[in-house]
Amino acid sequence: MARNGRRVVVTGCGMITPIGKNSRETFANAKNGVSGIDFLRSFETEGLPCRIGGQVDDAWLEAAPVIGPHGMEKCSSRGLKLMISAVSEAVESSRLDQVEDRDRIGVSLGYHGENPSVEDMLLLYRYSGKDFWDISGLTTSGVYSFFNFFRRKPDVATSILSILFNCKGSGITTVSACAAGAQAIGEAFGIIRDGRAEAMIAGGCESNLNFAGFVGFVLIRALAERYPSPDKASRPFDRKRNGFVMSEGAGALVLESLDHALKRKAPIFAEVLGYGSSADAFRITDIHPKGDGAVLAMQGAMADAGVTPGDIEYINAHGTSTLQNDQIESLAIRRVFEEGAKKVPVSSNKSMIGHTIAAAGAIEAGLTIMGINGSVLLPTINYEFADPKCDLDYIPNVARQVEHRIALSNSFGFGGQNACLCFGKFVQ
Amino acid sequence: MKSFPRSCSYPLADEIVITGTGAVCSLGNSVREITLGLLSGKSGISEITDFDAGGFGCRAARVKDPPAIKTDIHPHLAKTMGKHLSLLLISTRQALIEAGIGSGNFDPEDMGFFAGMGTVDYRLDDLLPAVAKSLGPDGELDYGRFFSAGYQEIYPLWPLGMLNNVAFCQAAIHFGLRGENAVFAPHGDAGVKAVAEAVKVLDEGKARVAIAGGVSEEISLQSLARAGLKGLIRSAKSLSVDPAAQGAATEVFLGECGAMLVLEPISGATARKANMLARVAGFGFSCHRDGKSGSASTRAICSAMEGSLSQAGIGPGQVDAVMLGGCGRNEIEAVGRTFGTGAKAPITVSTVGSLGETFAAGPILNTAIGLEIASWDKLPRGICPSGGCSPVDRSKPARFMVNGISYEGMCSSMIIEKTAGKSI
């Protein structure tokens, strides 16, 4: 069905989120409208106006099998550990480890590296002089670990994944904020379609629930600050929404050329039909007020897939729960789907999981595919008060059992990078 | 007898050509100025004078006083984006001017934008006032003070300094580029990936023109510390890391650079009578770490080079020059394995010794320099100032390979074919 090149299918899916240690558990909880948002335990939040987030249970990570050479864990940020867990599940479900030719398997990761900790900052402060910061002294003294720098570099995570899962094909690291996970999948899709690889592990990960990752968003007032209880804070498209909820997690897909998948009798969960990306080119801190970038990305994905708006039966929205995003995304959907907009079910997984930044696009892609296969439209929970500017069918609060074949998954990044993926039920 | 990868190639529906180049680095603010500087034996590497890097005992190829480009963003926000923004803006503007593209030539939605962006670092002075205000009488961090007062000292948008894509997004705003886009990070391979993605998007008809290239890291105490700890720069000796063991054949210095290309389908370039500088003929990518150095292995670099030859539909004997990604031993060995070492082997050119390690910008700068040199009658001596490479006098190269090598195992290669000018 893809417009040109080879057909690309999804043969593996894995994730770890605040509502599940794997994709099956995450999907089941999402279907039941379970929220993963709670008071933060990962760092001291006393005095901050937002004290909640979506944390992955440490026990889940600790229970995950340790793979790779000894010492690798020193190089691994928490975000990468989450990704290793998600990729392990995806690889196992696709039986990718049975493929002997590893030269034609690559990794495409959306990630931003690890933030500095408060302790890092204090260390830097102690090594300060009158007009300079003595990083040289800090590094030569050995008190500042080499691995701190190593974990900051996003490509190190890609490289480690390539080593752990023995992938010797193209290794790509995309850095486009909240669109990174979706863009990583889109890039992997293009690489396979063009014949540059037979299979790609693609997805995104993020763990920002630390002071440095959190406080910037507190200061720009992007996070939800008014909530009766943590589980009620993320409320995309609801009139009382007042910011997003920061979360952590990882999502991974195994993408594969159809021929390759059929030849090795791999399970096929869905087909990647199209991918579109765009830039708002408007302002760093604001979305284009008419949603031009979002419109372009959705239209691009559909054109790439060779489908029309009438073919789309579900949209997994970016739906962050901020005033601006949800209103403008709704407007963009109305512009693309015109009179049919209100007939297309739209929901936001972030209502339950929160916003996992670079992981969001990948987790949501996985849930979209699982929804297609299970004929389930996941709900938007905490939808209580209609917003006249958000007037679409948001699948409020309760999942629906509806067969659907073609869906879009939106991801819009801070700075104005947009991505949209189009998935379809696999039909041979 | 070397083997080619089995099926790395795919037919391009339309030939993609380069119609503009732009670059800024330590040796100058244009491709010509940089090339002339290289050929006259100049080096962009000098002592670091505008911040105290004494503890590192090293030099670098910094861009001093880059031409200013006026933007309408708040100075503090611009500062957060650092030199990334000016390097990207300057090189993009040059490339667009050379391609003859101004506002109105293309619908912004038809203009793709792709870049490899070097690692970004948060600014310590954005954070440390908060720490200073949060210390208790014992000099220890008092979290009570930190969260009640300290954090409010922090510039709200400081996390943008940790996102590689923010300067890229600002450049998209500045030039009104709204089409397909992606940011890759952060080493030499990322620059080639940006060009490959641009070619793919143009080939699929998703854009009518694409701007693609790369930007290096900004040299700072943090980038020096990172390079030192990784063993890339010689100052790392104090940390008991031997650069020789890291696969570097020569001493490496960090360099700052922005380098961009304008790419178009030949049909479009012909229609608007654009000056066609070169054709992009093939790409190859691989990923495999050398167990010792952590850098791309010889095997991986061979695979990437063979992939690009395969996609271009040519053999090693049809390449006139190889623009090296660096001067690492693995790359030199890979070039030897792929092309042989006899008289018929292509010229190998490395600019790292003069311009420093410019990460994602490196292969794009080398492409622009290669095109500049290829327009001259003879390839002069002296273009390869670093050890391990053997410059020779011979006819100008018509077809050259450009490598982009990562220090984390990824590597990439592309084939550029010089064209005669307006038509191929």
Account of the protein in words:
The complex is a heterodimer of chains A (428) and B (424). Chain A has two domains: 8-113 and 153-424, Peroxisomal Thiolase, Chain A, domain 1 (3-Layer(aba) Sandwich), CATH 3.40.47; 120-148, no CATH class. Chain A contains 15 helices and 14 strands. Chain A has helices spanning 23-31, 58-63, 72-75, 78-94, 118-126, 135-141, 146-152, 154-164, 180-193, 211-219, 258-263, 292-305, 323-337, 350-353, 360-374, and strands at residues 8-16, 38-39, 52-53, 105-110, 171-174, 199-206, 249-257, 270-279, 314-316, 346-347, 376-377, 400-401, 406-412, 417-424. In chain A, the strands form three sheets. A ten-stranded mixed beta sheet of chain A has the order 5-4-6-7-1-8-14-13-9-10, sandwiched between helices. Chain A is globular and about 65 Å long. With 424 residues, chain B is an alpha/beta fold. Chain B folds into two domains: 19-120 and 163-421, Peroxisomal Thiolase, Chain A, domain 1 (3-Layer(aba) Sandwich), CATH 3.40.47; 125-153, no CATH class. In chain B, the strands form three sheets. In chain B, strands 5-4-6-8-1-9-15-14-10-11 form a ten-stranded mixed beta sheet, sandwiched between helices. Chain B has a three-stranded mixed beta sheet with strand order 2-3-7. The longest helix of chain B has 24 residues, at 75-98. The model of chain B is unreliable at 1-10, 236-249 and 385-394 (pLDDT under 50).
CATH top level assignment of the largest domain in chain A? Alpha Beta
Q: What is the total number of structural domains of chain A?
A: 2
Q: Supply the helix-strand structural class of chain B.
A: alpha/beta
Helix content of chain A: 25-40%
CA-atom Rg of chain A in angstroms? 21 Å
Distance between the termini of chain B: 33 Å
Short description:
The complex is a heterodimer of chains A (428) and B (424). Chain A has helices at 23-31, 58-63, 72-75, 78-94, 118-126, 135-141, 146-152, 154-164, 180-193, 211-219, 258-263, 292-305, 323-337, 350-353, 360-374; strands at residues 8-16, 38-39, 52-53, 105-110, 171-174, 199-206, 249-257, 270-279, 314-316, 346-347, 376-377, 400-401, 406-412, 417-424. By secondary structure, chain A is α/β, with parallel strands linked by helices.
